[in-house]
Amino acid sequence: MKNEMAVAFSSISENESFARVTVAAFVSQVDPTMDELTEIKTVVSEAVTNSIIHGYNNEPHHQVYITCTLIDGEVELTIKDEGIGINDINEARQPLYTSKPELERSGMGFTIIENFMDTVEVISNPGKGTTVHMTKQLTNTKTVCS
Amino acid sequence: MGLSSTFAIKEEVLIVRLSGELDHHEAEQLRNEWKEIMYKNDVKHVLLNLEAMTFMDSSGLGVVLGRYKEVLQLGGEMVVCSISPPVKRLFEMSGLFKIVRLEENEEFALETLGVAS
């Protein structure tokens, strides 16, 4: 069975916690482990923070979009902004790389996302925005599928 | 849920106890408070107690790294204790344990920093 949700919210940092709690509540329906839930929350936090700080340069009047689909024990997560985009995606995905060192960023956002999800695809058009599409198979359903 | 932080000073060690969720939204205020306390007090080392920390992401790592650099300038050491498995994974992933020492609990960590109990 396929189950889908979509949410859009203002690009303010207060909504980082709203976003991860919302996605976690949705994913909870298919019985993830506590570790999986923490991983998904962390990933949502990283991607939404990227959209707010980098995509929208901390401007509060934009929108961040999340869609999440549950299908056959797999979580598909898409986090999208219509911000400035990323010029060099490979550079942005390097561990410890940050375009804003003055903000005391660790540069670990994408590295954490890649570690916690099975697949990560970043699509970005400078001036138009960035979409991060990710999937993760949950363990409690892995054996059933094979 | 948010973040709450308490600071205590024992001899030349600043103890920072964090509870709740540390993300980008909470990071700035924590950074300001933490920096001010380090600036105003004669401390050398930092002990970070994460016993009650329920969530942390890369923004939190950034704050810790930033304070680590300041501790280094003071000629001190940063020690973290009572860390949960998910936060430990984040620290491992980012190589933070190469520069920040991990101890089991606050009492033991303080002892290693030369504070008598």
Automatic annotation (TrEMBL), chain A:
Keywords: ATP-binding, Kinase, Nucleotide-binding, Serine/threonine-protein kinase, Sporulation, Transferase. One of its GO terms (molecular function) is protein serine/threonine kinase activity. Residues 35-140 form the Histidine kinase/HSP90-like ATPase domain. Gene3D superfamilies: Histidine kinase-like ATPase, C-terminal domain (3.30.565.10). SUPFAM superfamilies: ATPase domain of HSP90 chaperone/DNA topoisomerase II/histidine kinase. It is an enzyme of class 2 (transferase). Its EC number is 2.7.11.1. One of its GO terms (biological process) is negative regulation of sporulation resulting in formation of a cellular spore. Pfam families: HATPase_c_2 (PF13581). It catalyses: L-seryl-[protein] + ATP = O-phospho-L-seryl-[protein] + ADP + H(+); L-threonyl-[protein] + ATP = O-phospho-L-threonyl-[protein] + ADP + H(+). Belongs to the anti-sigma-factor family. Binds to sigma F and blocks its ability to form an RNA polymerase holoenzyme (E-sigma F). Phosphorylates SpoIIAA on a serine residue. This phosphorylation may enable SpoIIAA to act as an anti-anti-sigma factor that counteracts SpoIIAB and thus releases sigma F from inhibition. This is Anti-sigma F factor. The gene is spoIIAB.
TrEMBL record, chain B:
Residues 3-113 form the STAS domain. It holds the Pfam family STAS. The keyword Phosphoprotein applies. Keywords: Phosphoprotein, Sporulation. PROSITE patterns: STAS (PS50801). GO terms for biological process: sporulation resulting in formation of a cellular spore. GO terms for molecular function: anti-sigma factor antagonist activity; antisigma factor binding. Belongs to the anti-sigma-factor antagonist family. In the phosphorylated form it could act as an anti-anti-sigma factor that counteracts SpoIIAB and thus releases sigma f from inhibition. This is Anti-sigma F factor antagonist. It comes from Virgibacillus massiliensis.
